[in-house]
Amino acid sequence: MNPNHLSPHDGQDQDYGRRRVVIENVTPEVEKGEFPIKREAGDLVVVEADIFVDGHDTIASVLLYKKEGASSWKEAPMELVQNDTWRASFRVEELGRYRYTLMGWVDHFATWYKGFVKKYEAGQDVSSEMLIGAKMIMDTLQRVSGADANRLETCAYMLTSDTFPLEAKIGTALSEELVALMQGYQERRFATVYPIELPVIVDRKKARFSAWYEMFPRSVTPRQASHGTFKDVEGVLPYIQEMGFDVLYLPPIHPIGKTKRKGRNGDVVCQPDDPGSPWAIGSEEGGHKAVHPELGTLEDFRALVARAKDFGIEIALDIAYQCSPDHPYVKEHPEWFRVRPDGGIQYAENPPKRYEDIVPFDFECKQWPALWEELASIVLFWIEQGVRIFRVDNPHTKPFRFWQWLIPRFKEAHPDVLFLSEAHTRPKIMYRLAKVGFCQSYTYFPWKIAKWELEQYFTELTKTQAVEFFRPSLWTNTPDILTEYLQTGGRPAFMIRLILAAMLGSNYGVYGPAFELMERLPRAKGSEEYLDSEKYEIRTWDLEGHDSLRGSIAQLNRIRGENPALQGVGSLTFHPTEHESILCFSKRTPDRSNIVVVVVNLDPFQRHWTYVNLNLDELGIGADETYEAFDTLSGEGYVWRGAWNYVELDPAWRPAHILVLKRHTGPLGTGQ
Amino acid sequence: MNPNHLSPHDGQDQDYGRRRVVIENVTPEVEKGEFPIKREAGDLVVVEADIFVDGHDTIASVLLYKKEGASSWKEAPMELVQNDTWRASFRVEELGRYRYTLMGWVDHFATWYKGFVKKYEAGQDVSSEMLIGAKMIMDTLQRVSGADANRLETCAYMLTSDTFPLEAKIGTALSEELVALMQGYQERRFATVYPIELPVIVDRKKARFSAWYEMFPRSVTPRQASHGTFKDVEGVLPYIQEMGFDVLYLPPIHPIGKTKRKGRNGDVVCQPDDPGSPWAIGSEEGGHKAVHPELGTLEDFRALVARAKDFGIEIALDIAYQCSPDHPYVKEHPEWFRVRPDGGIQYAENPPKRYEDIVPFDFECKQWPALWEELASIVLFWIEQGVRIFRVDNPHTKPFRFWQWLIPRFKEAHPDVLFLSEAHTRPKIMYRLAKVGFCQSYTYFPWKIAKWELEQYFTELTKTQAVEFFRPSLWTNTPDILTEYLQTGGRPAFMIRLILAAMLGSNYGVYGPAFELMERLPRAKGSEEYLDSEKYEIRTWDLEGHDSLRGSIAQLNRIRGENPALQGVGSLTFHPTEHESILCFSKRTPDRSNIVVVVVNLDPFQRHWTYVNLNLDELGIGADETYEAFDTLSGEGYVWRGAWNYVELDPAWRPAHILVLKRHTGPLGTGQ
User: Fold this and answer.
1) Mind listing the domains of chain A with CATH numbers?
2) Chain A residue numbers touching B402 (CB-CB < 8 A)
3) ipTM of this model?
4) pTM of the prediction?
C-alpha cells in the first residue's frame, strides 16, 4: 500500500463518506455549466437529473434556484419520473441571470415508513419498528416547535407507550399525517449537493419572438441620388408598423471612409458621388460613436428611436467592429492594427479576396485589454442613446473570448439588451457564438430549400441541446443574400420563403423594401449579390407598388401575433407527407390550447396534392376524433378526422395552408 | 456600466484575450474527466475534438499524453477529420493511469503560406507578402540553431534580397522544405490548452478478455456430505483448464457464522450438519482475513493460487462486505453497525425480506474513515496472498464514494488488480459503479432472451459512451440465477446461452459444474433459485458425466483464443436477418484481418431457416465479392457472395454457426 495515499477524508469534509446520494446527468446543462441556458421572462425551466443511492433507502431531492445575487435559494421538490430520473421546475420571472442546482439525501423516515408498511402487511412483528420510528420522531422534535411539536410528541408517545392498544399504535405509525409532518422537518443529513451552480440567462420575450425589417436609411428618399435621413425614416414607420414588424434594423449609421471606397456594385474604382459602403466605418467626421452627417444628427437619431417606440418598433443598430482606413482609431491607436512591411495598416482580406476599404483590428495585439474596453464603450454609447438591440456583423472574425466577456458585461447592467450574431459560417462556430452569449443567431435557413434539408436542419436546431442556447433567426434575404431560389422562382418563391421564415422561425427577418418589392436581379449569374446593391448606392423604392407583398407580410405577422404556438420553436414537429415538395409541420403551446399546422408547397412552379400524416399523439388529438382545421390564410375551414388528410396547393395562388386546429366544441386541449 | 465588473484580464493570464483557439467536445471524455476511460495495455486511444478559431487563420493542434507521474508530455499531431473535428491517437503500453489533453494555436506561418499561394495563383503582387514571410522566418530563427538555422536564414535572405530573380524568390516562398522547417519550429504563441487532463486507466488484457468458472470449493469432494478442500480444488484444475477457463472464482472462503445460519434451500431453520451460506462471513474462527478451517489453511490457499497459475488459471476471490452476527467485527467494532432498540445489531433486510444471518455495515456511521480503512485492509490482505482478481458482492449496497476511493487506492500500487462488480440492479447504478472504478461488470445478459432484447442491450453497451467505462461480463448462470429459459429449454438452451455468452461477451462466465452438467431444477415454480442450491449445502458432481457440455465449452474457448476479433466488444455489429429467432452479429479486429460472424437460432425447440443480410461495408467486403465462411464449430466451409445468405439452424444438433470469413486467396483486409 502506498503510504502516501490519501486517507479516506483527507481534503474532504468530515462527512464526505456519509454523503451517499449521487446526482448526475443533469439537464439542461451546457458544458457542465460553463455556459448558461437561455430562457425568456415567464418561462418554466424544467430540470431533470439522475439521482440515486446505494442500497434500498428512500431518497428525497430538491431543485434549488435563485436570481443571481440573491442571498438564499428557493426550492422545488423533485419528483421521480422513471428509472432514477427526477424532475422539478421553476419559473424565471425577472430579466438577468438565475442559477440552479440540486440537493439529494436519504430520507430515513420515509425508508422506515416504507419498511414498516411492508412488514406490517406481511404480518411481521413490528413492535421493535415502532420504537425505531419513535426514536426518529424524538430526534426530529429537536428542530420543531409549536403545534407540530405537540403532534409529533404525541405520535412518539403513542408508539412507545404500553398503555395504548396495538391497533392504535399501528394506526399512528401508518398515519399519513405523521408522514407529512416528518417530511416537513427532514434533517437532510449528509445531503449531497450537485457541485455546479448552473446558470440561466433570462432575456425578454423579444429574444425569442421578433420580426425584423432591415432597411438602408439613406435609401428612404423620394428622389434618386438624394440621401435619406433619420427624419425620412420616421416617415416610413407607419409603413413598417402596418406590415407588423417590431424591429427595424439599420446598417451602420456612422461616417463612411473615403480611402479605397468601393463604387457601385462593389467596384474597386469609386465615382465621386458614390456613397460607399456603410460597413467601411469611420472618417475624419468620426468613428463608431458618430453619425454620418448626411443621415442627420445624433439628436435626430434619438428622435427616431423615440418615434419608432410610439409605433411599437425598436431600432436595432449594426455593430461592425472594423474600420475604414480613415477611422480616427487608425491614427490614434495604430497599436490595435497590424502593420504591413511598407508601414501601412493591413487591410482585411480572405485571400485572394481583398477588402482594402476595411482594416480589421488585431485582436492578438499586446494592448488587447484597452482595445476590448474601447470596443465595449461603443456599445455602451449606443445603449445610452436608447438602443437595446444590436445586430453584430461578422462576430466569427473576432475572438470568442471577447464576446464571452463583452456580452455578459452589458447584460448585467442592461438585461434587456439583445445581440444578434450575424455569422454565416461553419456550424460549430455558429453554435459557439451562441454559447458565449449571443441572444439570437443567423442560420442556414436561406440555403435550406428542399424538404429534407428543412426537416433535418430544424430538427437539429430544435430537438438537440442547441435549443438550450441557440435562438435561430430566419432571414428570407439580406443585402448579401439573394438566393437562386428567389432569383428564379417568381412571386411564389418569395411567398413560400416568407411563410417558411415566419412560421418555422419565431425570430425572422426580411431585408426590405427589396423583399416585399421582390427585387431579384443578381449582380451576375451564379452570384447571390443584388444587382445595384444598396450596400454601395442609394436606391429609391416605390413602396406603394401594387405588386408588393406588404399585405401578405402583414397577414403573416398578424397570424404570428394571434397564435402563441408560433412564438417559439421548441414545439416544432414535422409530419410526414407523401410528396417530396410538400412540407408539413406544427407548433403548439405547452398546454395544446393553440395548435398550428403549416403545410407548404415548396415548389414555386407546380401545383401538387398529397396526403399529410399528422402525428396526432403529439398534437393531443384522438385517432378517431373529428376536428376543425381553420386556414387563417384563406379564411376557409376544413373538417378533418384521423391522421391522414388530403391537401392540394397551387403556388401561384395558395402556396400554403396555415391551419389552426380546433375541436368543434372548443379549443383543443381544454378537455371540452 | 457596473464599475465593479472585471476588466478584461482580471484574474486571467495577461495573454488571456490573445488565446483565440477554442477546444471543445473532446471524446472520449467521461463527465468532463471526473472518471477515467478504460483501456488495456497495448490499446490505441483515439481522441477527437472540435478545434477552431475565429476568422480565417490556419490552426494547428496536438494531443498531449503521459503516464501519470511522468514529468513531461508526449505529443501526437492532430489531423483534421471534417467539419472542425480533429483527431490523433496514442498507444498505452503500461498498466496504470495515463492522462491526455489538447493544445491548439494559430499557425501564423501556415496562414501566411496559404494566403501567399492563393495570391500568387490569382496573379497578385506578392512582394510585400514575401517581406512578411521573411519577417516570420527571422523571428523563428531566434529559436533555431545548426543546419536548420542556416537554411532558414538563407530562405529569409532570398525573400528580402533584391539580387535574386522574382521566380527564385517565389520558388523559395512556395517551397515545401520551408513549410516543413517552419512547422518544426512553431512558437505556439497564445496556445489554448484544454483545461482538463483526462484520465485513462490501463488494465491488463484480462480486464477485457477472460473466461470465468465459478465453483464452490466445498463441493469438490468425492463423497456426499464430506467437505471439499483447497487440496481437492487443486485436483480439478486440469478439468477446468481443459475447458479453457482462465479465472476460477471461489465464493467466500472464510469462516461461516452459526447464529441464524440458513439451512438447506435457504430454510430459516438450520439442521446441525448444514454448512451455512459462505456469504454469512465470520465466526469465532475469524473474519474476512481468515480461511474456513474445513477448506484448509491459509497456506493451502496460497498453494492453490500457485498451482492454478501453473494451469494458466487465476483464482478470483469474493469480496462480500458484510458479516455474520458472529463476526469478530461485531464485538470489536459495534460502532460500525446499526443498533436496534433492543440493543441487538440490525440484521440485513429488504422489507419484508429479512436476512438474519447477515449484518450489514453502517456506512453512515461516524467512524466511517476507520471502517473504510479496515475494509481496504481486507483486499490488501488477499493481494498479499497472491490474489489479483476480486469479484465484489453487491457493490450497489455500499456507497459509490467508498468504491471511488478504494479501487484506485489498490490499482495505484497494484495496477494488475481487477475488480468485478456483481450488481444486478438498475442501469444507472450499474453504470455508476463502473465509472467509479470497477473493471468488469455483471450485466442483464441472463434475462436478455429475445433477439430484439439482445440487439438493443448490446448496442447500448457497445455503441454508446458506456463502452468507455463499462466492461460487460456475461454469465450464463450464477448460484442465484437459473433462468426460466435454462429451466425449460433443455440441452439446446444451455448451448445457445453458452454460445451467446462466449461470443457476444469478451468477458463471460459460467457457474459450474451446475452449468456443464445442465442442472436445471428450480427450488419452486417461478423461482430462479436452484433446488438444493450449493449456497446452503454441499453437492457432489459427476464431472465425468457423459452428457456434460465440457467439450463444447472447450471448443468455444479455443475459438475465442484463436480469433482476436472475439477478444473485445467494441466492434460488435448486428446484422439483420429475416427471422425473429435468428440472431446474427459479427466482430472484427480493427484491421479486419480477423472477422467472425455468429448466427444463432435463439429458439431451443424449433429448426428455423432464413436469410441473413450482412453489412458488407462494415466488414470491408465488396458487394460482389466471393468469400469463404468457415464454420469453426462444425468444420464446414461455405462459399458466400453478396450480403444475403441462407442459413438453417436446428437447435438440437447445430444451434449456431460461428463463421470465420476469409477471402479465397488470403485473410480479409490484407489487401490480397
Assistant:
1) 3-106+192-202 (2.60.40.10), 109-184 (1.20.58.80), 213-323+368-563 (3.20.20.80), 567-663 (2.60.40.1180)
2) 17
3) 0.94
4) 0.94
